[in-house]
Structures are given as C-alpha cells and as structure tokens.
Specification:
By secondary structure, the chain is α+β, with helices and mostly antiparallel strands. The chain is built from 22 helices and 14 strands. Helix 6 links the parallel strand 4 and strand 5. The longest helix has 28 residues. The N and C termini lie far apart (98 Å). This is Mediator of RNA polymerase II transcription subunit 25.
Length: 806
C-alpha cells in the first residue's frame, strides 16, 4: 500500500529548550522518558523515518549569567547523538544554577530557538521542513520585554505577544512541559497555536502541565492481517522481531534502558514448547493462536516499542521482579550517599551519585510501568500470580538478591504455579501499583508516585504529625538552601523535607495554595535582631507564623533528613541572618513572602508569612536610648567604670523593654501573636530540634511547654510564637544585639579601647548574675560611683516623665 505523497518523509527539525534550574535537573530523566519520549515517537511516526529528524538543544539561565544566559547551545544533529549527550548534566547545563531569585531569561531562549530554526530551514531549501519546539520549564521567567542576547538584529523588537506570529511564519509547532510553576506567558503562545493535541500518555502528577501542538497522528501503518495470501501466516512468528525495529523512534527510552550491574542472568535462547503438545484444558490461559507457540501460555504480544531487555523480562516475571528489587535498592543506596555527601559538602561525590541515579532511573521507571500493567490487566493473570509470589519471597528474605547475596533463584516459566510456603498471607494484588520512584535529591519537593492503573496500595506512609495526635500541618514541601561552603569555597546545596504547622490564632491567612512545592531560601543582608525587636516587628506587621518540622516522605531516609534539618538551622544560626523565600504572590509580583529565623537556643525553625503582600519591612534593631547628660558623665569615667556603667544602662534598657512587652501583652493580645509570659530560656546545649530530635526547649521551674517538651508534633498543642519574643530573660542573641548598640555608641564617644574587653566579656558570659559585666578572667573591673548612679537614675526619671507627658 503506497504512502500518500503528502505523507512522504520530510525533514523535521526539533529544538529542545530547557532552563537550568535545580528543580528541572531533579526531574530531568523523568521528563525525558515519560513525556519527551512519547512526543518523539509521535514525531517519528509522522516523518516515517527517524533519519530525517534533526535535534538541537538549548539551555538558558538568568540574564545575570556571564557571558550570556545560555549554558548550552548546540546545532541540529542526529537524534541519537544529541540524546546521548543530553544525559550528561555538564553538557546540558541543566541544574547548574538557581533561577528562582531573578527568574530565567526565557524570552532570550525562545528567540535563540527561532534563530536556530532559521539556520535549519535555510539548510534544507529543497523541501519545506516541519519544526517542533519542545520547551521544558521548572522556573519562573524574568520581566524582560525584549530579548537582550539575540544574534540576529531582526529580533530586537520581539516581545511575548509577537512570538506566536514568528512561530507561524516558520511552521513551528510549540509544545511546553511545565513542572510545578505558573508561567502565564506560555499560555498566550499556546492559545495562538494550531493543531492542538491532548496528551495521549499518562501525566505523572497534576503539577505537570503539558501543552502540545502539531502532534496529530496523521498516518497509521496498515494492520498485519492485511495480507495477499493466507499461506504467509505461519511465518508470523518469524516476522515478529521486525516489530522491534520501531524502537529507533524514541531513543530517550531505548538508549537509557541499560543498567550495567543489575542485568539478570538469562539463557541465550528461550526454548520453544513442543508444537505437538496440546494445551491443558484446565489451565487458566487466554485463547492464543496455534501459529504462535513461542509465547508462554497466557501471555499476550509484547508492545513493539518495548526495549529488548525489558521484553525478555516480561516473558520471565521472576527476573522482572528481581531486577526491580535490585534497582530500587540501588537507587536508595545512591540516594543516601548523595544526601550524606551533600550535607558534608562533598560536591564531587554528590555529583557522582547523581550521575549513577540518572543512569539507573529510566530502566526503573520502565519496569514499574510494566509491573503495574501486568498486575492490573486480567489477560496477564499468570504473570500476576508469579509476580505476587516473587514479591512475597523477597519481602520475607527468602532470596538474597537485594541484600547482596548475588545469586538469583532459577526463574519459573510464566504460567507455571509456584509452591507457596505455608503460613504466607495472600498479597494484595495492588502491591506494585503504588510504587514510588526514589526521589532525586535537589529535585522536586514531593515524592511523586509512578502512574498506575488502579489506586495505589503500596507501603504504609511515614508517621505524620496528625497521625501522631499532634496539630495538622498546613503545608508539606521542601526548603532549599544554596550558598558557599566555608570549608572549601565551593557551592553547597541543601534540601530538607519539612511540614509547616500553624502557630497563629489570627492575623493574615497563610494562603498555602499559592506556596510553591519548594521554598528556595536566600540569606538576607540584614543581620539577626534580638527577640525583643523581633517581637516589636511582629506586632507592627502581624504576620502569620508557622513552625517547620522535619517531614520524611517515602523513600527518604529519616536520619539523613533530620540531619539536614539540623544542618540548615545551624547554617542560619551561624550566619546570624534571616532567610527569605520568594514566590509569585496573588497580585502577580514575585517578592519575598516568608521570613525564616531560628527559635531560642537555635533549636527550632520558624517562618513569618505575608502571602498576600510580601514582607512589608525587615526587622531592625531599635536604637539604644542615651541621654546627652549620661554621655558626658561616661566620657569623664575610666574605662573600667565606663564598662560597668554601660552594663547598668543595658540592664535599665532591658527592664524597659520587658515592661513595654508585658504592658502590650497584658492589655490585649497582639494580632496573630498570642502572649505567653511565664517562660524562660533553658540554655541547654543538648536540646535538639523538634520532630523527635530532642527534648524540651523551654523550662520554667516545674512548668514546661507541652509543644516543645513533647519533642515535636504530637507532644502537645501548637507552640505559641510569642514565647520567642515576650519571655522574661534575655537570650544570647539579645545580648549580641545590645552589644552592637553599645559598640555603636562607644564609637561615637571615642571609647573603642575600653569597649573591646567589655564586649568580649559579655559575649563570653556564662554564669554570673544577669547584667553583670565580666572582663578578662571573669573578674569585675572597677566599682560603680554613687554620683554616676544618681546621674543615671535622674536621666531615667526624666525620660520616663517625657514618655508619660506624650
């Protein structure tokens, strides 16, 4: 049957455009295999020849990247060669930088794709090529109106609104794969596209949005029964391998299917059953044609797009399950090694483990999908029984294949019943239907199960605060921190899976529906302020306050995640700064909407949220009040007397702050910040963070706070955030803040020499009475003069009278 003239093979140019965000790098192999693979298969069917397809790749970051935002720009080449390179992160540039703070230069990337298509179209002038642009996005865009890094000046005036016309001029079909972000600019482009197509394959998660065009199935090969003679039928089994030649279409699947160290030991030739042997009457097998004796009883034809190594595994279900178990164990080991290396700052080991995961994951995804199909369709009942039996044996340790034994039990042919050990409970038929893919660390914030044919009934979930009887989290996701490692000067990326628990009884709503799955944290230039000043800031701004606790999704090691949580708290506390997270607010702007800070004694992590307006102002240290008369008196003193006097002034200022906070709390609750005054800090360095990593954080004689002494969620009611601000004793950060104020005052008075020792003594203060200034060796330096105290008291009384008159 001749192919119509208008369907003859035509040159096809495909550009894959991707940003360089860490979020996209975490999902890279999944997106290529689950989405780009089927898209390429459809493109190949349209072309009728994979050799006529040329592939180009472009990746872009932020416009601040030097010398240009492009991490990779490669001209069209054979698909297999480009795909092979696309699995190398160093080649693609994907994951080399975070694009969340400034937004990615997407407009420059799209214009670069147009320039690439212009070169391609000019090179095939003998025919009219068909062009496809596949855009992978996991980051928001910057606010550029025109491109800045285009090579062709004809694109200088290009805007988002004019891109659609540029695509139509060149017969470019635009398809986008957006993972977890909202990008309204792309919606306009897709609305103007022609030949829109609904995805014909499964979508992994609702956060993945696919907009496809130009992928209509225009030509379907004639079915195999259309034969001129019936005598050719017996050779159908011999012609069967020809169907596997179609594997050349989506190399994203075929070339990534090799797993070097986990291939099963298989015989070279699968023996064929005796043709003369009639099938048993009682065997629960599906009717099969007598001309196909090479298939196991009860099996169905294998899809032609299946890689050969997977095709063989389906014919031997025990080997399929064994390989799945080995691969999952291998991925978990690599994941733990990757997390441990990241927390230790070993970038080289982390990247090596990441590359190994990228090699193994495609095969794992493929096996999960096949197992889901075999256990959900009735025609594969024999394979389903064998899979369930093998799974029971592996779960009960009857086979050492996962634990390192290396030996694999002989495979049982499909359809043959296996003897079940006595006492084994029957496994739920949906055991494999909810298998979760081991997560790529640094990637998407939530564990995403593979698509299944039925509701998942996999492993039991990790205990959560609500299952433990504690407050219900309002949000689950991850906190990502990118910075510089002080030990080696290299880049250090951290990802911690957490849950946010509300601590507010009022104030603004959280609007968690607007939060991203991953909060990208950046340190502030403003230093940490004392708790008293933080409380005053909270009273002015009325944020919604939440506490973060470790949350351990499936396939994430709890100990490693808890360690990462503690490391993140230590990082913020060591830098003595706040951390902010920005996302797209309801008003359309991308501003910091969350301020993160450590709790007292650096044992907890809290966030003040402004989900509607963004952070209105940053916390700052209130000025230390100083009467000019007191400054004159201090200038007349010796350094020792001056240090003691400044210490007394600090006590007075501390008392005034405490009185103001108590007065504010006694007369009524601060909006969103209920008051709690019966707490004092228990400076116990051994106390760990919440979530089961330590004991209580507060202690006031025999009176304890249930939320903290319970060790985290489930230990009591939600913690009252006002306890961090309105307590009766000053913590070490407060001393540091006071020291900064007095140092500033001392510099104005020209007393740098005397203040140095005094401040050092204060910073190192351990025991002793509150407010006592300790010098070198812990001894008091000098005595307080009676006239000096009288001047101080007079100054204080004058100041109080002025405040009362106001």
């Amino acid at each position: 049957m001749a192919i119509p003239t208008d369907l003859q093979p035509v040159p096809i140019g495909v550009v894959i455009l991707a940003d360089t965000s860490l979020d996209l790098a975490a999902q890279w192999s999944q997106l290529l295999q689950l989405y780009v693979g089927p898209i390429f298969k459809r493109i190949t069917e349209q072309s009728q020849s994979a050799k006529r397809i040329q592939l180009s790749f472009i990746s872009y970051g932020t416009s601040e990247r030097t010398p240009s935002p492009f991490a990779c720009k490669r001209y069209f080449h054979e698909v297999s060669q480009v795909v092979k390179k696309m699995r190398e992160e160093a080649w693609t540039g994907v994951g080399t930088c975070s694009t969340t703070s400034h937004g990615a230069a997407a407009l420059d990337g799209l214009v670069a794709a147009l320039e690439m298509f212009d070169i391609f179209i000019a090179s095939v002038a003998d025919s009219t090529p068909k062009c496809h642009l596949i855009h992978l996005v996991a980051s928001t865009f910057n606010d550029a109106i025109h491109p800045t890094f285009n090579d062709d000046t004809a694109f200088d005036d290009t805007t988002w609104d004019s891109l659609s016309e540029e695509f139509k001029k060149r017969n470019i079909f635009y398809s986008s794969i957006v993972a977890g972000v909202e990008v309204p600019q792309l919606k306009k482009i897709y609305e103007a596209s022609e030949d829109k197509v609904t995805p014909w394959f499964n979508i992994l998660t609702p956060s993945h949005q696919l907009s496809l065009s130009g992928l209509t199935q225009t030509y379907v090969p004639p079915p195999s029964p259309v034969k001129r003679t019936a005598e050719n039928r017996p050779s159908e089994s011999n012609k069967r391998p020809r169907t596997s030649m179609h594997i050349e279409t989506p190399p994203f699947v075929a070339e990534s299917a090799s797993v070097p160290d986990i291939k099963p030991v298989l015989p070279a030739v699968v023996p064929k059953p005796e043709p003369s042997a009639p099938p048993p009457v009682s065997a629960p097998t599906m009717p099969t044609a007598p001309a196909a004796p090479s298939r196991p009883p009860g099996s169905q034809p294998i899809p032609s797009s299946m890689p050969p190594e997977i095709e063989v595994l389906v014919r031997r279900p025990t080997d399929l399950v064994d390989n799945w178990a080995r691969t999952e164990a291998k991925l978990k080991q690599l994941q733990q090694a990757m997390l441990a290396a990241r927390n230790m700052g070993d970038r080289q080991t982390e990247e090596q483990a990441h590359r190994e995961m990228l090699k193994i994951q495609p095969m794992y995804h493929r096996m999960v999908g096949i197992i889901n199909a075999l256990t959900s369709k009735p025609q594969f009942a024999p394979q389903k029984a064998i899979i369930e039996q093998r799974q029971r044996e592996i779960a009960q340790g009857l086979h050492p294949l996962v634990t390192g034994g290396g030996a694999v039990a002989p495979a049982v042919p499909a359809g043959m019943p296996q003897r079940q050990p006595p006492g084994h409970a029957r496994l739920n038929s949906g055991e494999f239907k909810g298998m979760n893919v081991p997560m790529m660390i640094g990637g998407p914030p939530n564990a995403m199960p593979m698509p299944s044919m039925a509701p998942p009934q996999g492993p039991q979930p990790q205990p959560t605060p609500e299952t433990q009887g504690g407050p219900k989290p309002i949000w689950r996701g991850s906190l990502c921190w990118s910075g510089v490692d002080s030990t080696n000067g290299g880049k250090r990326d951290m990802q911690v899976f957490v849950a946010a628990i509300s601590q507010s009884n009022g104030g603004q709503k959280f609007h968690v529906d607007t939060w991203p799955d991953a909060l990208m944290l950046t340190p502030t230039q403003q230093p940490m302020v004392p708790m008293a000043d933080l409380g005053a800031w909270a009273k002015r701004t009325s944020p919604a306050v939440a506490m973060f606790v470790p949350q351990n999704p499936q396939n994430v090691d709890k100990a490693v995640n808890d360690q990462s949580f503690r490391a993140l708290i230590q990082l913020i506390a060591t830098k003595k700064v706040f951390a902010v997270a920005a996302w797209t607010l309801p008003n359309g702007s991308r501003d910091p909407g969350c301020l993160l800070f450590t709790g007292p004694n650096n044992n907890s992590l809290l966030g003040a949220f402004f989900p509607e307006t963004g952070i209105p102002e940053m916390p700052k240290v209130d000025g230390f009040p100083m009467n000019p008369q007191v400054e004159q008196e201090l200038q007349k003193m010796t350094p020792e007397q001056r240090n003691l006097t400044l210490n007394k002034l600090m006590q007075i200022h501390q008392t005034q702050q405490r009185s103001r906070l108590m007065a504010a709390g006694g007369g009524g609750n601060t909006p969103g910040m209920p008051q709690m005054h019966n707490m004092s800090f228990n400076n116990n360095p051994g106390v760990g963070p919440p979530g089961g990593m330590g004991g209580g954080m507060f202690n006031n004689g025999g009176m304890t706070n249930s939320a903290f002494n319970g060790g985290g969620p489930g230990g009591g009611g939600p913690v009252n955030p006002a306890s961090f601000f309105n307590n009766m004793n000053m913590s070490q950060p407060q001393f540091n803040g006071m020291n900064m104020n007095m140092m500033s005052m001392a510099q104005r008075m020209g007393m740098n020499g005397g203040m140095g020792a005094g401040m050092g003594g204060m910073n190192g203060m351990g025991g002793g009475q509150p407010g006592m200034m300790m010098g070198n060796g812990g001894q008091m330096n000098g005595q307080i003069n009676a006239n000096m105290l009288q001047a101080l008291m007079q100054a204080r009384n004058q100041q109080q009278q002025q405040q009362q008159q106001r």
